[in-house]
Amino acid sequence: MTKRIIGLTGGIATGKTTVTNYLASTYNLPILDADIYAREAVSVGSPILGAIAERYGQQILLGDGNLNRQKLGEIIFNREDERNWIESLIHPYVRHRFVEAITQSSSQILVLVVPLLFEAGMTDLVTEIWVVHCPEEQQLQRLMQRNQLNRQQAQARINSQLSIAEKLARANVVLDNSSSLEVLLKQVDIALKLPSVN
């Protein structure tokens, strides 16, 4: 039997983590998270972090040698060319870690949480695509609250991603997170019971 590999994506602050936690806790599914691999890619002493420090200078690092994410965010969410440069370093590393984990896993169903699934060109790694979404105003409010951002900063982060309409057009499963948690999780239950797309 071929593995069922769910690519879970959606806009920033639309509810991917909620869906992920539910799939892990209720269904015990293995979760492979692009954000964790991306953090690993820029860990202290990594060649990628070295390249970033060389490009932006030591002020991009915190006192303990870790990446100053806030400072990097200010650069990449306002300059597309710089964001593309960073992603050209991090995406290949993340892809490599995914391939490794998929190969080693004995589980028949895997969940890959990839906020930039389309942008990073990783759709070939999954057998079906689930997109979590909510209205943009709701997304903005959640993001401002969660990350302590002003409206302009939150909008810049949303704009840095592929539009939700484009993501929805390419989804096999659409999860609408504009209502209650209960309604969202019921959609997850139904999606998981669907015959696998592959």
Task: Please characterize this protein's 3D structure.
With 198 residues, the chain is α/β, with parallel strands linked by helices. The protein contains nine helices and five strands, in the order E-H-E-H-H-H-H-E-E-H-H-H-E-H. Helix 2 packs across helix 5 and helix 6 packs across helix 7. It starts with a strand and ends in a 5-residue tail after the last helix. 25% of the residues are buried.
Features:
198 residues, 9 helices, alpha/beta, globular
Structural class: alpha/beta
- Globally, the shape reads globular
Note the run of SSEs as H and E.
EHEHHHHEEHHHEH
* Strand elements, count: 5
Summarize the structure.
Helices cover 52% and strands 13% of the residues. The protein has helices at 16-27, 34-41, 47-56, 69-76, 80-104, 136-147, 151-159, 164-169, 181-193, and strands spanning 4-10, 31-33, 109-113, 128-133, 173-176.
